Amino acid sequence: MGEIVTIERMGFGPEAVAHLASGKAVFVEGGAPGDVLAIELTEEKHSFARARIVEVKEPAACRVAPTWAEPSSQGVAPWQHLVYETQLASKTDNVVAALSRTAGFGDERAAALVRPCLGSKRQWGYRNKIELGAAFDAAGMFQLGFHDEGCQDVVASATCPVAYKQIERAPKALRGALRFAQGADDLGIFRVGVRHSVRTHSTEVALWTTPAAFPRGHVANILKGSFKATSIVRVLADPGRARKIKGVEVLDGKGFWEEKLLGFTFRVAAPSFFQVNTAQAEKLIGEVIRGLGGEVGDEGPVGLDETLIADLYSGGGTFSIPLAAAGADVIAVESAGSSVRDLRRNADANGVDIEIIGGDAARELPELGELDALVVDPPRAGLADGVVESIAAACPERVAYVSCNPATWARDVARFEENGYKLLYAQPVDLFPQTYHVEVVSIFVQKNAK
Ligand SMILES: C[S@@+](CC[C@H](N)C(=O)[O-])C[C@H]1O[C@@H](n2cnc3c(N)ncnc32)[C@H](O)[C@@H]1O
Fold it and tell me: In this structure, are residues 28 and 62 in contact, taking their beta carbons and an 8 Å threshold?
């Protein structure tokens, strides 16, 4: 049944939020705050509904014409119909709302602690990485594109305008090359990653395949002829969510990708995590260093001499290396083997000494003893049960918590507040323009600190 609604705000996901005449919340894909819309319900539950737009009766002032017209853009750039200022304000509001409701701070205290979201200079063409799903479609054609939000279907795509210009046409080029390379065979390719650095000019193509026979030379030759890369690798793994990496084979070139952050060099293996927005990652590092009492000056990070800092969920050293360069004694804990190897190499290459522990952060933390400060940057699930209690037992004066998920972050904020810490402030940083995703750097201090 149709209804006219006015959009009130953006939700925590791709959709906008309004209320039906009955008072029930309705999530509308493609809505913008201020829009007056004729909608049709697509799903109705006890406490909320979902709807699609039938007609935009009165467009909101913040509505802009989408830049990216392909159907795959819906999953990758779901907020592209909003002017950038509205995207940033909505991200700030969502962090405030999470702190207010999930952490129980109330609106006033939450609003006072959350700073305005730091915007990205580049709002398109900012990603150093494109991650593509690969599959044969019902007609037996090899497709390369983006996974639809929440499902495994691959929506074919020719371009990716949120990625650097140098790689934005990679989906089309690689689809053609891989169709030619495979012919009538299925080589088990289920994912393709492309990384590029505008600072080092390094470009890597990673083919994720099942661990079966693979004509390496043949595929490498065809890819080289159609796409300029400094490294082509094959990652052997099983498809699915918990991907267990069985090995990485170099098909051509260097076998790694290289990026620079604040002048430090990072070599990154294909299976390893690395921040996808290089310029904004530098803002994260600056926020963490300043939050812990250091500074990032013209000569680089300084001011953390003789400070013992643990960097949990360290990846390849995005925070560990600048912290060590600022004078801190750093203990890094990371569970993924490829990132641990990257970090060892990156620490050597940048001339810093870091104690590196390969293992689970929750298990290793109680063994670290007393700390002066701590950095945590966990995956979207946030901190495992017991981690906040272990952090409190290590007595760091300050904690920098970097999060990519305001919901789990707010849950963990409440745990910090119950364990002797108070949130000093939260700084959202936009690493993902045109999407609802937001990073938050938050700084905690001991409640009884002088
Ligand atoms: C969001 S990434 C952050 C990495 C790094 N701080 C950065 O900014 O590049 C999270 C990292 O935590 C690692 N990780 C996931 N679960 C972990 C665990 N239980 N213990 C330690 N590290 C873990 C992942 O492999 C990944 O490198």
Answer: no
Same domain for 322 and 418, yes or no, is yes
- Same domain for 354 and 214, yes or no, is no
Q: How far is the CA of 334 from the centre of ligand 1 (A)?
A: 6
Which residues contribute to the annotated binding site for S-adenosyl-L-methionine?
275, 313, 334, 377
Q: How far is CA 134 from the centre of its chain?
A: 21
Do 303 and 249 sit in the same domain of this protein? no
Residue 440's domain is classified under what CATH number? 3.40.50.150
Look at the chain and report how many structural domains it folds into: 3
Q: 280 in ligand 1 pocket by Cβ < 6 Å? A: no
Cα–Cα distance, 21 to 365 (Å, whole number): 51
Residue 362 CA to ligand 1 center (angstroms) comes to 12
- Structural domain includes residue 343: yes
Q: Longest Cα pair distance anywhere in the chain, in angstroms?
A: 70
Residues 182 and 116 in one domain: no
Nearest CA to ligand 1 atom 16: 335
Atom number in ligand 1 closest to CA 314 = 6
Asked whether this complex has an ipTM greater than 0.95, the answer is yes
Q: What is the rounded CA–CA span in Å between residue 170 and residue 186?
A: 21
pLDDT digits (tens, 9 = 90+) for 26-61: 999 999 999 999 999 999 999 999 999 999 999 999
Over the chain, what is the mean pLDDT? Answer: 95
DSSP state of 144: E
Q: Provide the angle, in degrees to the nearest 10, between the axes of the packed helices 406-418 and 387-394.
A: 50
Q: 105-154 pLDDT, tens per residue?
A: 999 999 999 999 999 999 999 999 999 999 998 889 999 999 866 566 78
Distance (Å) from CA 341 to ligand 1 centroid:
13
Residue 404 among the catalytic residues? yes
- 232 and 292 in a single domain? The answer is no
Give the pair of three-digit tokens for residue 271. 């299976």
377 lines ligand 1 (CB under 6 A): yes
pLDDT tens profile 370-386? 999 999 999 999 999 99
- Per DSSP, helices labelled H in 247-405 are 278-291, 320-325, 337-349, 361-364, 387-394
Q: Which atom of ligand 1 is nearest to the CA of 272?
A: 27
Ligand 1 atom nearest to CA at 273: 27
